[in-house]
Specification:
About 45% of the residues are buried. α6 (about 165-170) runs parallel beside α10. Strands 1, 2, 3, 4, 5, 10 and 11 form a seven-stranded antiparallel beta sheet that branches. The chain has a two-stranded antiparallel ribbon with strand order 6-7. The chain is built from 14 helices and 13 strands. The chain is of the alpha+beta class.
Length: about 400
């Protein structure tokens, strides 16, 4: 290879049915006596798979986490049913071992230094390469894939979606605590994850050719070995043929998973339609995206976002309500109106970070009460304070 010249890498994009849906949910395994994270994923997954890999329950970085995933779904309701059946399998196997399931962006009390890494060469290499940055990744999230038919659409959609990162982050924020301390943030998970050099906000690229060239540069420089090692908040997933929204903190209930899936599907469908009509999608300014993400991580739904180049701001709560109202006609076509409107209900009762702090205050600061509340929310599929 000529010095200074990066050999182009052609990245095949597997076209997906438009607005198809897939969801990934990272579940924490909890010792019901100590309320600490429990390293039991290998044992549980071996049992569930009968010696083979389970198709919808997977290892994650830590032995205290099991990721459950859907197949390719058409509707939010189908995705919820798919997730729910796998969660039931995992919950039953965990219960036989005195363990419970919960999901939050971070565990309120467990010290990350106590955690075991899953025995997977990919994760062992990540820890070897990243050291402390990877070892402290005691964080849990929700990822939503939405199908796109053409690679030419993917980068414009990713760029446009960065303007909505604060909406997803604030509504899903569930990580106020880190190793027993209130961080003062709504989402410390998002800041921990940004420690990895290929995580965080996506770069604003001009199109698929630019994406291929950037990936070729990273591979040539041995920063990554494959596209899978780029963990942006919003990213293309070439093998699945999707745009993947990875910004959400871990959501405690299927009820909350439903609004995240509906909002993701509706937004991508809206942007897809605008491209079809010949519109040029907006590309928010990088500094605005960065500042607004920080505001959402710090203040959650009480943040005010920058909305123009003059520095004008508006309450995020108002922006979320307006976005949901704008998307209702699309949700009606996709069959997820009920699930989309649940985002407004979460605004009313409070996202998980607010509910966790309320539980701690009621227990005079005892964070085991926060764990108990999260366990109950998943078990009952009901956010605290919400009448279903």
């Amino acid at each position: 290879m000529e010095c200074g010249v990066v050999t182009p890498v052609e990245i095949e994009f597997t076209s997906s049915p438009r607005s198809s849906l897939g969801v990934e949910w990272e579940l924490e395994l909890i010792d019901l006596e100590s309320r600490e994270l429990a390293s039991a994923s290998t044992e549980i997954l071996d049992e569930l798979g009968g010696g083979r890999e389970h198709p919808k329950a997977k290892h994650e970085l830590l032995e205290s986490c099991i990721e459950v995933i859907t197949g390719v779904c058409s509707t939010v309701d189908e995705a919820l049913g798919d997730l729910g059946s796998t969660v039931t399998e995992v919950a039953d196997a965990a219960g036989q071992r005195g363990l419970g399931l919960m999901c939050s962006g971070t565990h309120p009390i467990t010290d990350w230094t106590t955690q075991q890494i899953s025995p997977n060469p990919r994760y062992l290499k990540l820890v070897e390469d990243m050291q402390w940055l990877a070892r402290r990744m005691q964080i849990f999230g929700v990822h939503v894939h939405v199908g796109v038919r053409s690679p030419q659409k993917v980068i414009p959609i990713v760029n446009a979606l960065t303007g909505y990162i604060p909406h997803f982050l604030a509504l899903s924020a569930s990580s106020p605590y880190w190793v027993g301390t209130d961080t003062g943030l709504a989402s410390v998970r998002s800041k921990v994850f940004e420690g990895l050099p290929t995580a965080g906000l996506p770069y604003q690229l001009s199109g698929w050719d630019d994406f291929e060239h950037f990936m070729a540069t990273l591979i040539s420089a041995q920063t990554i070995s494959s596209v899978r090692e780029v963990w942006w908040d919003v990213r293309p997933h070439p093998r699945f043929g999707t745009v993947e929204l990875r910004i959400c903190d871990g959501l405690p209930t299927l009820y909350e998973i439903s609004w995240a899936a509906a909002l993701s599907q509706c937004l991508v469908e809206m942007l897809n339609g605008q491209l079809d009509r010949g519109y040029t999608l907006p590309v928010p300014k990088g500094w605005t995206i960065r500042e607004n993400k920080w505001r959402a991580a710090r203040y959650g739904v009480d943040a005010s976002l920058i909305v123009d180049d003059e520095g004008s701001t508006r309450p995020l709560r108002d922006l979320i309500v307006e976005l949901i109202d704008e998307l209702v006609p699309i949700a009606e076509r996709l069959g997820c109106t009920k699930e989309l409107l649940r985002a407004k209900r979460i605004l009313e009762v409070g996202p998980s970070y607010e509910r966790q702090r309320a539980a701690a205050a009621e227990a005079d600061g005892d964070l085991t009460a926060v764990v108990d509340g999260l366990l109950a929310e998943m078990r009952n599929d009901a956010p605290m304070g919400l009448s279903l």
